[in-house]
């Protein structure tokens, strides 16, 4: 009876929240539209163009056995440090290069290929989802702080924290080792074994190259459309929560928590916003007045590490197609947020001095000035070419989808 009542309460609560959001969107149409456009702009300028090529290439690399080849080579590194197979090294590298939720998508693919056990997949997905260098240097450092050199500090703290998250998560599910023993703990990679694994994987994959490429494109765009939907949805939700005074109410509770970490309470609103959506939270943190750059960097590092519920929803949606649990991922994101903030404090002095993070333009070495212009050029290029690339890709996708549906119907 108690469980039935709890289930009914959950149903009523969810219905109430969805109805409240619908009413809020009707009463605040301009704010909802503005938030939707902001989310769409982020998706088609940055997210889609940066992730789509990597998603397609990843699918092809898995299909042709290259990932299996790399897995054998990386086994001596990945197994001792993270207690996952060597193929996890590919997912980790791609996750860092392309950003979330690439790590979750690749982990799911490897799980579907039976290259990972359930526990290994849960360990792997915990530390293979991170912010991309493009987002850290381009969107945050250049776009929000107008300080590209700050990206060195944020990136170092973020990826170092991610490494330690992976190392800590190696202790998750330790009982599994009683069920499965791994043979051949080799100190050096075995090239011949890696080549054999590559060949066997290609032989077992009976799909023609055209079919493999088509499936890779369709699967990648399906995932990116889902990602875009979540980005737009949470952008609107974040805006509505602010106008419903939910964000300020939660932020008022942080007035008592932030001073414990010697951080101004003015960061409350930006931190709550970042917990829901990473981009808006980072932008708001960069605009808080009366604070020093180190304090802003600490808050942004936590937001980048936690990743925001928007990313959590994307990952949870991807994991829902398998038996991989979401809870370890959530725990890892909280842990990553705190670790990244700690590393930001520890690395602040050496990075600030070496990379001239707070220096004026005339005091910066030439190679750092070139670095600044490089990231600004990349961000400008994405803002110009990104939407066109996205529209062309979606047009081609629609053409092939209609063609495929016609074949299925007849």
Summarize the structure.
The protein is an all-alpha fold and 410 residues long. It has helices at 2-27, 29-63, 66-82, 88-98, 102-112, 118-127, 133-144, 150-169, 191-204, 209-243, 246-254, 268-276, 278-286, 293-306, 308-319, 327-354, 366-409.
Write up what this structure looks like:
The chain is mainly alpha-helical. It has one domain. The chain contains 17 helices and no strands. It has helices at about 1-25, 30-65, 65-80, 90-100, 100-110, 120-125, 135-145, 150-170, 190-205, 210-245, 245-255, 270-275, 280-285, 295-305, 310-320, 325-355, 365-410. Helix 4 (about 90-100) runs antiparallel to helix 5 and helix 6 packs antiparallel against helix 8. It holds the Pfam family Gate. This is Sporulation integral membrane protein YlbJ. Keywords: Membrane, Transmembrane, Transmembrane helix. InterPro entries: Gate_dom, Spore_IM_YlbJ. It comes from Lederbergia ruris.
């Amino acid at each position: 009876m108690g469980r039935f009542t709890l289930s009914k309460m959950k149903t009523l609560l969810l219905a109430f929240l969805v109805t409240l959001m619908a009413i809020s969107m009707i009463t605040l149409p301009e704010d909802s539209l503005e938030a939707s456009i902001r989310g769409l702009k982020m998706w088609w300028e940055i997210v889609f163009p940066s992730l789509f090529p990597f998603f397609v290439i990843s699918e092809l690399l898995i299909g042709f056995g290259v990932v299996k080849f790399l897995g054998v080579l990386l086994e001596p590194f990945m197994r001792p440090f993270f207690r996952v197979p060597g193929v996890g090294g590919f997912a980790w590298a791609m996750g860092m290069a392309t950003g979330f939720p690439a790590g979750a998508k690749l982990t799911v693919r490897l799980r579907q290929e039976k290259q990972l056990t359930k526990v290994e997949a849960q360990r792997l997905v915990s530390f293979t989802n991170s912010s991309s260098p493009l987002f850290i240097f381009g969107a945050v450092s250049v776009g929000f702080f107008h300080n590209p050199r700050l990206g060195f500090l944020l990136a170092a703290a973020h990826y170092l924290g991610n490494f330690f998250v992976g190392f800590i998560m190696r202790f998750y599910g330790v009982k599994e080792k009683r069920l499965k023993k791994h043979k051949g703990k080799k100190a050096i990679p075995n090239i011949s074994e890696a080549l054999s694994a590559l060949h066997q994987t290609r032989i077992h994959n009976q799909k023609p190259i055209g079919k493999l490429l088509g499936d890779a494109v369709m699967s990648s765009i399906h995932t990116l459309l889902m990602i875009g939907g979540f980005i737009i949805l949470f952008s609107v939700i974040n805006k509505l929560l602010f106008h419903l005074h939910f964000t300020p109410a939660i932020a008022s509770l942080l007035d008592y928590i932030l001073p414990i970490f010697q951080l101004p309470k003015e960061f409350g609103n930006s931190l709550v916003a970042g917990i829901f959506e990473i981009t808006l939270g980072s932008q708001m943190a960069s605009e808080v007045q009366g604070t020093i750059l180190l304090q802003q960097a600490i808050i942004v590092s936590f937001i980048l590490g936690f990743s925001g519920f928007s990313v959590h929803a994307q990952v949870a949606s991807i994991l829902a197609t398998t038996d991989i649990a979401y809870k370890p991922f959530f725990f890892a994101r909280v842990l990553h947020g705190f670790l990244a903030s700690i590393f930001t404090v520890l690395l602040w002095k050496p990075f600030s001095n070496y990379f001239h993070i707070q220096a004026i333009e005339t005091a910066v070495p030439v190679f750092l000035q070139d670095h600044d212009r490089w990231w600004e050029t990349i961000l400008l290029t994405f803002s110009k070419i990104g939407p066109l690339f996205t529209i062309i890709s979606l047009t081609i996708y629609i053409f092939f989808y209609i063609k495929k549906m016609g074949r299925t119907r007849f």
